[in-house]
Every structure is written in C-alpha cells, then in structure tokens.
Amino acid sequence: MTDRELIRAAFAVRERAYTPYSHFKVGAALLTRSGRVFTGCNIENASFSPTICAERAALAAAVSAGEREFDAIAIVGSMEGKVNTLPTSPCGVCRQALFEFGGNGLRVILAKSEEDYQELTLGRLLPLGFGPANVEH
Ligand code: THU
Fold this sequence. Notes:
By secondary structure, this protein is of the alpha+beta class. It is built from 4 helices and 5 strands, in the order αββαβαββα. Bound molecules: tetrahydrodeoxyuridine. Tetrahydrodeoxyuridine (THU) binds at residues 19, 22, 24, 26, 42, 44, 51, 53-55, 75, 77, 88, 90-91, 94.
C-alpha cells in the first residue's frame, strides 16, 4: 500500500460523507501495521455535537475489526463540489483519539491530491500527548 493508494482510498470514502449542515466533506484512510486499510467519513447530526469526524469513524472501524496498531492515516477534506486549497488537519479531539493507538510515530498524511500532500507525525501534531503510558500503574 503506497501513500498514493492510501490517499486515493480517503478520496473515495469522502464521497460518502454525510454533511447536510457544513457541506464540508472529509475522508480518512487508516493503514494498519498488518497492511489493512480502514476508511471513514464525517457523519453530521441535526443536534450538531454527535457529529463524528472522518478520522474517528475510520479508527472505530479499524478497532472494531480487531486492529490496534497503525502505520499511517491519510486525510482529505473540502467543501462539497470544490477542490481543497488548504490541507485538512485533524481536529484536537481526533488527534487525541488517534494518539491512544498510534502514539507519536503515526504518520499523518494531509493531502490536497494524490500528488500534493504533506506528511507529519502525530507527535508533531500533538506534542507531549497524554496516552496509555501515562495511566499505567
Ligand atoms: N471534520 C472532519 O471530519 N475531520 C477533520 O479533520 C476536520 C473536520 C468534519 C467535522 C464537520 O462535519 C465538518 O468537517 C466541518 O467541520
């Protein structure tokens, strides 16, 4: 699975985003250490706060399938019918949710297209993240 293919999977699932309120569609594709890919889109809600981001939808699918170790996540987002000009960076809640399983080393790929993307680590996006190691006893 190349980064390009992971980005393509994120674009494909973005089509399924349910966004009647913001019209901002996001897709995320999460690559497990074992080489499987789980995807998620954002799912909004009339009551707003139950909205789930694409990244956490992908994480829920992966963990529900028994996967807990991840190598990378590709994220794409833009307004309905538009090409994105800015990269879509994961929100604070999603950074924390990913940190639980990905830790500092998770590669986060923010893509505008299959060719135009940047890669950061989760540790850079969430410095000194609070995770399972902090609550060991
Ligand atoms: N959203 C995501 O799904 N992921 C992100 O990384 C940023 C924001 C969603 C939440 C909401 O449905 C819409 O994008 C606008 O904020």
